[in-house]
Structure formats: structure tokens, C-alpha cells
Automatic annotation (TrEMBL):
Residues 10-330 form the Enoyl reductase (ER) domain. Pfam families: ADH_N, ADH_zinc_N_2. CDD domains: MDR_like_2. This is Alcohol dehydrogenase.
Amino acid sequence: MKAFIINKYSNKEALQLADVPVPTVNDNDVLIEVYAAGLNLLDSKIKSGEFKTILPYQFPLILGHDVAGVVTQVGKNVKIFQTGDEVYSRPSDGRIGTLAEFISVNEKDVAFKPKNISMEAAASIPLVALTAWQVFVEKADLQKEQKVFIQAGSGGVGTIAIQLAKHLGATIATTASTQSFQMLKELGADLIIDYKTQDFETVLKDYDLVLNSQDTRTLEKSLNILRQGGKAISISGPPTPEFATEKKLPWFIKLILSFLSRGIRRKSKNLNVDYSFLFMRANGSQLQEITKLIESGIIKPVVDKVFSFDQSNDALKYVESGRAKGKIVVRLK
């Protein structure tokens, strides 16, 4: 099969188009013919080696964490899916590789594709929607009338997070450029701050929750807008020792993460707020709940551009530019 691969960690080297074997289908796996693949900044960070200490991959490596397609083969223990089913997934860490004609995914990480959207729209959903779900529903237990600050509202995570938080009954503030204001109002944002001319730290106060997706400086400022007992959940770091324990990482990695996060943990303790790091994980049952929200019209995919398979390098560069409004998708079929 055709796939885009990397042979080493690199910021500069392009993805290489190669012929590679079709993945093995284990007893609990489904083989998905890839119709569309979503790209995320996580793909770029893995390509550059930013996560190699906590996510060590072997080469050649196929990137891609979002897939929508059709099941073409099932393992002998698979109960839910059968050949011909239209599905989507965020494959688990260690088994990524959606920039390819086929991918084998454990059944527990797969969900039925929403019937009311295209393959390209479906491929934009899994990683960002699971991130928002795990932040708001699982980790923060977001309640009606709570106030949440979602950074970078027009990004891939932001556009879905705003819709989910609105569905949960929260009041939502976000940051964006003025060109995105109308779109974000339509998605459900209550207060939109122009990050070019305003400082959110001077506008927001006594918030219950911050979803941080930006740099450490922005995270530090975000702690100041929380009420006492409020929560800051970061999807961009720094990772914490608790994360190392959760992932069963070696003791020396836990020590490194303790050092890297000590400043933000100290500041959050001094302010009497809670700081935690979330590295989202694959979860087919949660994705099936998201399917219901999409089919009922509560969540709508936001896709900026769709690239052809042979334009995968251009697609990744566009993701890295930070200009995307919503998600970037690569079409294979």
C-alpha cells in the first residue's frame, strides 16, 4: 500500500511517499480502508521528536491520528463491526498511521461514522472531539452555568470544545482574531477576546475552568483568571509527574517531568487552583457518544481545507502555520 512515512525525527525533512505492507489484522482489530485522514499539530510534534521520551516510535513511521473509512477485514474476536461498515477513529498511541491507504485499529478505538456528514468531515473529528470530551466530561466534570475559558477558539480543538461546552451549559470565553468572531459566535462563544489588541488576563475573572492549548507564558496568565479552587487543564504541557505515573513511564521520566512542571505546579498551589496535564487517548465508546451529538446537530465539524493525498506535505505545513480555522483533512478516496 502507499503511505507517507518518516525515517527519523526531523523538523525539516518532508514526509516520504513509500510502498509499505498492509498492516496485520490481529484478533481484536478491524482493517480500515482510509477514505480521509485528519492532521493535527500532534503529528508535527511527533515528527520533530518533541514527544520521543514519552512516545518512542520505531521507524519507518506513518503519521496521522484521525481516520474515516470503510472496514475491509475484521479479526476473529471482533463483535461490533463487520466488513462494509463506515467508521472513524483516533487510533491508540503506538498504532497511529492514517496517512496510508489502510490502517489496522483495535475495535475498542473505533466508532460508527456519523451518518449525516462526509468522510472528510468525519476525519476531522476524533482527536479534537475526544480531547474536548476528556477535558470537560471526564476530567473537569463541567457543570451548567460554570465559566470556561477556551484558548484559540478558531483552532481544531477550540471549534469543537466551544460547541461541547455550550451543550453542557457553560458560559464560554475564547480568544481569536476578529476575522473569526462571527464563526465563533455561531458555534456558541459568549465572549470573544481579540488576542491582537486585548489581554485576556485583564478581561476575565473568577473562571471555573481553563482549557490551555498555548505556551507556558499563556498558561501562567490563565491561572490568574481562575477562582480559588478553579481548574486549569493543559493539552500542550508541561506534563506532570502524575501523568508519568498514569502512563507507567520510567522513574527518570517522572523526575524530568517533575522538574519541567515545578514552576506551574508551584504557582497553581500558591493561587489555590488545580493544574493538570491531559494527553488525550483513544476511546471508541466516547467517540460513539460524540457521533450521537453530531447526528443530532449539536456538534458540527469545522474543516478549513481538504488536501489530496499527494499534497500531504502541504497539508502538514498548513497545520504548522497556525492559520487553520478548524481542521485540515487529507482525502484519499
